[in-house]
Amino acid sequence: MSLFRDTYDVIVVGAGHAGSEAAAASANMGAKTLLVTMNLQNIAQMSCNPAMGGIAKGQIVREIDALGGYSGIVSDRTAIQFKMLNKSKGPAMWSPRVQSDRMRFAEEWRNMLEQTPNLDFYQEMVSGLLIEGDKVVGVKTSLGLEIKSKTVVLTNGTFLNGLIHIGDKNFGGGRAGERAATGITEQLVDLGFDSGRMKTGTPPRVDGRSLDYSKMIEQPGDDNPEKFSYLNITKPLTEQRSCFMTYTSPEVHDLLRDGFDRSPMFNGRIKSTGPRYCPSIEDKINRFADKDRHQLFVEPEGWNTVEVYVNGFSTSLPEDVQFKALSSVAGFENVKFFRPGYAIEYDYFPPTQLKHTLETKLVNGLYFAGQINGTTGYEEAGSQGLMAGINAALKVQEKDAFTLSRSEAYIGVLIDDLITKGTEEPYRMFTSRAEYRTLLRQDNADFRLTPKSFKIGLAKESRMKRMEEKKEQSDAFVSFFRETSVKPEEANPVLEAKKSSLMKQSDKMFKLFSRPKITIDDMRQFNAVEDYIQTHNLDNEVIEQAEIQVKYSGYIEKEKNNADKLNRLEGIKIPPNFDYSKLKSMSMEAREKLNKIQPVTISQASRISGVSPSDISVLLVYMGR
Amino acid sequence: MVNNDTIIALATPSGAGAIAVLRVSGKDAITISAKLFKSIHGKKLTQQKTHTIHLGHIVDGKKELDEVLVSVFKNPQSYTGEDVVEISCHGSPYIQQEILQLFLRNGCRMADAGEFTLRAFLNGKLDLSQAEAVADLISSDNEASHKIAMQQMRGGFSSEIAKLREELLNFASLIELELDFAEEDVEFADRTQFKALVDRISFVLKRLIDSFAVGNVIKNGIPVAIVGEPNVGKSTLLNALLNEERAIVSDIAGTTRDTIEDEISIGGIGFRFIDTAGIRETKDEVESIGIKKTFEKIEQSQVTVYLFDSSNSISNLEQVTLEIEKIKNKYPQKPLLIIANKIDRLDDTQLARLQNEIEGVHLLSAKTGFGVESLTHSLLELINQGALRNNETIVTNTRHYDALLKALEEIKKVSEGIDEGLSGDLMAIDIRQALYHLGEITGQVTNDELLGNIFANFCIGK
């Protein structure tokens, strides 16, 4: 007798950032969804730093929001500080980031999921999949329950055979205080999946009351905070909490070095690869021995809690070494630990085993999202969950798959990189991974993605309307600049103040505005501009959008042209299940990789490492036969 | 069809040939051609039907460049599936280059390697295997011509570009670093150093552009040093060669009168004849300097022509042999043509003696025209033997020239960006483009574009 009344359309295993987005997306698409997790108290836990967004990651959160995911809304509602990073650079680099209230973040996620129709919850460890032929038909729990479903999304995070290291101690666990999940890896490997091990780490959490902030540098939030969600159901912060910065010293480094012989990183106990871009403190002082200090960011964990997060001090050294070293950092002389930092090793499945929809190539209806695919970061995980959830629902509804291209979204870059190139270390998004960075801005994720999401039934009509309104207003404002002229006698005083060359005759405002040093504030000194803003009641978002489109029109056009070239070539499809092994004139390495990855287009094939241009030529010749 | 800008390239092999065909393809192919083509019947090209041929002239302003036949193919009934104009002009590299440059100045872009075929492929005119067959047909040619192109980049320019490109790449990485890790304690790209690098790159690019534009492409002749005393008949020889082929002569700008240079097209190949004073030993100081100069000219040339007046020298052939030996010893690898002029003044016995004593001598009477034809054959034979390799490089050079121009344009934008304090992410767009164009020359590919990947081994213009 089953506990469950229905066969589900989608079962999501795991309720981290990937699982929560997956469950919300599939349920919102109308699929009957069950979210199964080991501990329903820990939905959407921030297991590492209490922050969302950042460079490239903030853009992803905006994309998730534009598609109708929850991460942006939850982040807005639980933020304690907002910063637009890189504001001094071009608009492609503007990256929103919030510090979050860790406990409220998880609470708000659970709240929103509970209010989502079509979504059920169940708490237990999933120990295996139910497979019939090459199809997944449900999951099996550790109690032996069988839950039937048409599709399954696995988002196990660091829990699959998770092994926590602190100094020379290690024990099984998926996160501090939570046990590991077993059974799934073994079953998948039996089914023919490749698996690997990865490593990540987290710093100690300490008692904020034991710190001397007067010895640190305060880092407040922005004066005019913005927010993630394009919807008006969230508001910018009116009050914020500051972070603080301090530095390590040679003394701290010496103390850390004393513990190296007991470090699992250096004594060979940890064999798997950690992220190069987020190194542990022992890694930093080991690799950059000539640097006598490293930055540490002291981040509050919430509005009311005294717990703080010591960003930059990720470590798996023995707890006594951590304590002694951290106690030597300025401001930390009397530090009290809440818990030490640790490293964790876990199973992942090289993502080249996936399709663009994140469905596995081996098992029909089975989707992977998040750290199980070798990525790191809440935002990377959340966006994969969203895409897997959407595609699982679409599959059940027998509709076309939903994918994004490299020129449409960071999410498109992320998934294409994963399934085409795989990853040897935890994959983090960078803006430089995108060929067309200037197009993938945080200010236009709604223009790029909301219409697509609306079309598949995820983004609501209200979201679509809001986007259209913003687009109409900003387009009209841009046209106004194109059509309106300004006379030298009005413009020259403004230009003179900005040391920009003076005008000799009337010219269109667009041209003036395009000059490097001229900003919207300068333009607003012209009566016509200010009048336009007032009569049309334009909000800051619209004004900013118009400003970006005028000031960076040249660059945006240039990147659009380049992207169009790529997109045409993306259209050349390779037939599914193409057998590369018969192409004897192709290099062995290329044949193996192509057989494994089964690229969908010629363009994707050419991005696979180890596939040379001549291999591509051979492929083209044989494809016609 | 998104990428439908208008491209041009030579569709026939470069160098020798009675006629050459230039192919123009893209949405403005007909309008651009119409602007530069003057029909003898006053027909407007834009009003002509597809698959029609028209006689007229290619005009650069008021200057007529060549009499040509122009074929019009309207989309989709053309090789590429776009509007295509094919210009059949005379086969001289000089004309080809002039027309090519004219079209480039009027809104055409130099076709990338294999781009016509790529367009045909994208427009469904060829399937993949057909496209690939085209690649196979011409790929062997390409490798050789690539090598030659690399050699042609005199003084190791290509390795110089590769080095500059690598430095630029390093700086680009530094800029990416400061973009993606702005929050962290990383070293930023030093703008002063960057500016110095960019200046250095644009200096080299400009120098290369000048050298290709003037030296290699426009002038584009094989330097031939004519060694001979005054009055042995050098200018008569040049005139005889001219008459033989009715070839085009271009006066080279900047040529000083102390060395006379004449360019003559023979069989479609440009030869640049450099007059020298000869190498007769003398005690006169001024003349000694002249001998030194002669050897300098020989050094710079790819072919040496030793010309002497047979009627004068017949009594002193030892002197001639001595001088020939001297040249041969000094430049054993350099092709040497020995020409006895004014043989119309010799009798049969003298002729026999001449041929007997001087091995491989060409007999010539510039006055009567005897031997001129065999001389042009000998010159062309040197090309076919591969002793001279001016042949394939012409178009390759133009492709490089085009890439260099584009790279310079991007580098200029980068330079302006540095001056204006432009943000790194915007500068990165220009840097990526510059890297791409420099990569086109050195053969390094930076982006993942299919175009670069698949069609790179395609020969130009096919």
UniProtKB/TrEMBL annotation, chain B:
K(+) binds at residues 231, 250, 252, 255. GO terms for molecular function: GTP binding; GTPase activity; identical protein binding; metal ion binding. CDD domains: trmE, TrmE_N. GTP binds at residues 231-236, 250-256, 275-278. It is found in: Cytoplasm. Its EC number is 3.6.-.-. InterPro entries: AAA+_ATPase, G_TrmE, GTP-bd, GTP-bd_TrmE_N, GTPase_MnmE, MnmE_dom2, MnmE_helical, P-loop_NTPase. One of its GO terms (cellular component) is cytosol. Its cofactor is K(+). Binds 1 potassium ion per subunit. The keyword Repeat does not apply. It holds the Pfam family MMR_HSR1. Mg(2+) binds at residues 235, 256. Keywords: Cytoplasm, GTP-binding, Hydrolase, Magnesium, Metal-binding, Nucleotide-binding, Potassium, tRNA processing. Gene3D superfamilies: P-loop containing nucleotide triphosphate hydrolases (3.40.50.300), Probable tRNA modification gtpase trme, domain 1 (3.30.1360.120), tRNA modification GTPase MnmE domain 2 (1.20.120.430). One of its GO terms (biological process) is tRNA methylation. Residues 221-384 form the TrmE-type G domain. Belongs to the TRAFAC class TrmE-Era-EngA-EngB-Septin-like GTPase superfamily. TrmE GTPase family. Exhibits a very high intrinsic GTPase hydrolysis rate. Involved in the addition of a carboxymethylaminomethyl (cmnm) group at the wobble position (U34) of certain tRNAs, forming tRNA-cmnm(5)s(2)U34. This is tRNA modification GTPase MnmE. The gene is mnmE.
